[in-house]
Specification:
The chain is an all-alpha fold. Among the domains are: about 60 residues, Serine Threonine Protein Phosphatase 5, Tetratricopeptide repeat, CATH 1.25.40; about 45 residues, no CATH class. The chain is built from 27 helices and no strands. Helix 11 runs parallel beside helix 13, helix 13 runs antiparallel to helix 14 and helix 17 runs parallel beside helix 19.
Length: about 450
C-alpha cells in the first residue's frame, strides 16, 4: 500500500512525500526487493546516489541471490563514479551465472566506456559461448563490432541472428551492414529477396547503392527511380543524378538534379552534384552559379570549392579559378587534388613554376603512384626546361596511367623538343587514338609531318 501511495505522490510531483512512504515501506519490509528497488530509483532521481548504493548494498548482503538487485547496485555505483566497484559486482554475477545477459551486456558497456575494448569483446564472446542462443548477447556483440567499424565481424553476428530468427528489422540492419562491409553481391541478393515481400524505399536505396558499386548502373538508376516514386526523398534524386553522372549521361543528370533542387532547395549536395553535371556536360558558366548557391550553405566545403575552381577554369575564368583553389588550400593546405590542379594550371601557362613544382610534389607525397600527378610534375619540369627530369616523370606517368591521352601528348611534345620527330609523331598518334576529338594533337601531327616532308 505504501509503495502504491508513493507512486501516486510521485505522479503528483510530491517527491518528498513519496520518499517518506518508500523509506517507511523498506523499514517495515526490508527484504522486499520491489520496495528496495523503488526506493533506490527515487534516491537516484533526487541526486542521492550514495544513499541508493547503501540501500541496495544492505539488501544484497542479506540476499546475494537477488541478481536483479545486484545489477541495479552495479548500475548505481557506476552512476556515482564508483566504477571499479560496479565492475566487481558485474564480474561476481558472471562468475556465479556464466552467460548472464544483463551482467555481460552491462559489464561490456562499462568496459567500452573505459576504453578497454579487448576486455569488452572478451566478455561478450565468453558470455555468448556460455549462452549461444541469446539474441541479446549476439546483437550486443554485433553492435560492438559496428561501433568499431569492424564490418566483416559484425556481418557474422547479424547473419547468425538472421539464421536463428529472420525478422524485418534485423534484415534491414544486415542489408546496411553488407553495404558498409563492401559485400555488395550479398546486399543485392538480400535486397531483392526483401523486395519480393513488398516494396520499401529504404531497401531500394541500399539496392541502388550496391548496384552502383558493382557498376550495374542502369539497374541502380531503376532502383533509385522506384525509391523516388515510393517516397519523395532527396537521397533518391541525389543518387539518381549521381548514377547518371557516372554513366556520363550529363543531360539526364542535369534534368534529375534540377528537379531534385526544385523540390529540395535547401540541400546543398543537390546543387553541388548539379554543378558537377554541368561542368562535365560542358556548361561551366551555369555550373559556377549553381556551385555558388551550394557554397552559401557550406562556404568552407573543400569539395565544393574544388569543383568551383574547375568550373571557372573550364569557363576560361583563370583568375577566378586561381582564387577558388587558393581559398580551398587555405582551408586544407594538403588537399592533393587542389594542389595538383592549381599547380598544373600554372604549368600550362608557364607561370609561378617554382610554386607549381612545390604544390605538385606535395600532392605526390600523398599519392606517389597517381599517374595524373606524375604527369603534372613532368610537365612542370618541361616548362622549366629540365627535360631529363621531365622525361623521367612523364614516362612513369604513362606507365601508371597508359589510357590517359594527355600524358602521351606531353611525351610527344617532349620528344619533338628533343628533336626526336618520328618518336613525337608516334606518341601523338597514340594520344589521338585515345582521344580522337583532340584537334590540337591532330594539328601538331599535321604540322610536324609538313616539316618532315
Amino acid at each position: 500500500a505504501r509503495q502504491f501511495l508513493s507512486y501516486l505522490y510521485r505522479r503528483a510531483g510530491e517527491e518528498e512525500k513519496a520518499l517518506r512512504e518508500l523509506e517507511e515501506a523498506v523499514r517495515l519490509l526490508p527484504d522486499d526487493p520491489e520496495a528496495v528497488l523503488a526506493l533506490a530509483d527515487l534516491y537516484v532521481s533526487l541526486g542521492e546516489g550514495e544513499k541508493a548504493a547503501r540501500t541496495l548494498g544492505r539488501f544484497v548482503s542479506r540476499h546475494p541471490e537477488a541478481i536483479d538487485v545486484r545489477l541495479k547496485q552495479a548500475q548505481v555505483l557506476q552512476t556515482i563514479g564508483r566504477v571499479r566497484e560496479a565492475e566487481e559486482v558485474y564480474r561476481s554475477v558472471l562468475e556465479e551465472h556464466p552467460g548472464h545477459e544483463g551482467a555481460a551486456l552491462s559489464l561490456g558497456a562499462l568496459l567500452e566506456r573505459e576504453g578497454r575494448d579487448e576486455e569488452a569483446e572478451e566478455v561478450y564472446l565468453e558470455a555468448l559461448r556460455r549462452n549461444p542462443s541469446s539474441r541479446r548477447l549476439r546483437r550486443g556483440l554485433g553492435e560492438f563490432y559496428l561501433s568499431r567499424e569492424r564490418w566483416d565481424e559484425a556481418v557474422v553476428q547479424y547473419e547468425a541472428l538472421m539464421a536463428e530468427h529472420p525478422d524485418p528489422l534485423t534484415a534491414r540492419g544486415l542489408l546496411a551492414l553488407y553495404c558498409r562491409a563492401g559485400q555488395f553481391d550479398k546486399a543485392v541478393a538480400l535486397a531483392e529477396r526483401l523486395l519480393r515481400e513488398g516494396e520499401d524505399p529504404e531497401v531500394y536505396y541500399y539496392l541502388g547503392q550496391s548496384l552502383m558499386e558493382v557498376d550495374k548502373l542502369e539497374e541502380a538508376a531503376e532502383a533509385f527511380r522506384r525509391m523516388a516514386f515510393l517516397r519523395d526523398d532527396p537521397a533518391a534524386w541525389l543518387n539518381l543524378g549521381y548514377v547518371y553522372i557516372k554513366m556520363e549521361d550529363y543531360a539526364k543528370a542535369q534534368e534529375v538534379l534540377r528537379q531534385g533542387l526544385r523540390k529540395f532547395p535547401y540541400k546543398p549536395n543537390m546543387a553541388f552534384f548539379l554543378g558537377v553535371a554541368l561542368v562535365r556536360g560542358g556548361k561551366p558558366e551555369e555550373a559556377v552559379e549553381v556551385l555558388k548557391q551550394a557554397l552559401e550553405f557550406k562556404p568552407d566545403d573543400v569539395d565544393y570549392l574544388f569543383e568551383l575552381g574547375v568550373a571557372y577554369e573550364r569557363g576560361g575564368y583563370y583568375e577566378e579559378a586561381v582564387d577558388a583553389f587558393r581559398r580551398l588550400l587555405r582551408i586544407d593546405p594538403d588537399h592533393a587534388l587542389g594542389l595538383n590542379y592549381l599547380g598544373y594550371m600554372f604549368a600550362e601557362r608557364g607561370v609561378n613554376l617554382q610554386e607549381a613544382l612545390e604544390m605538385i610534389q606535395r600532392a605526390l607525397q600523398q599519392e606517389p603512384e597517381n599517374g595524373a600527378f606524375l604527369d603534372s610534375l613532368g610537365w612542370v619540369y618541361y616548362q622549366m626546361g629540365r627535360l631529363e627530369e621531365a622525361e623521367r616523370y612523364l614516362r612513369e606517368a604513362a606507365r601508371r596511367d597508359e589510357g590517359n591521352s594527355v600524358i602521351w601528348e606531353h611525351l610527344g611534345d617532349l620528344a619533338r623538343r628533343l628533336g626526336r620527330r618520328e618518336e613525337a609523331l608516334n606518341l601523338w598518334r597514340r594520344s589521338l587514338e585515345l582521344d580522337p576529338s583532340n584537334h590540337r594533337v591532330q594539328e601538331k601531327i599535321e604540322e610536324l609531318k609538313g616539316e618532315i616532308r
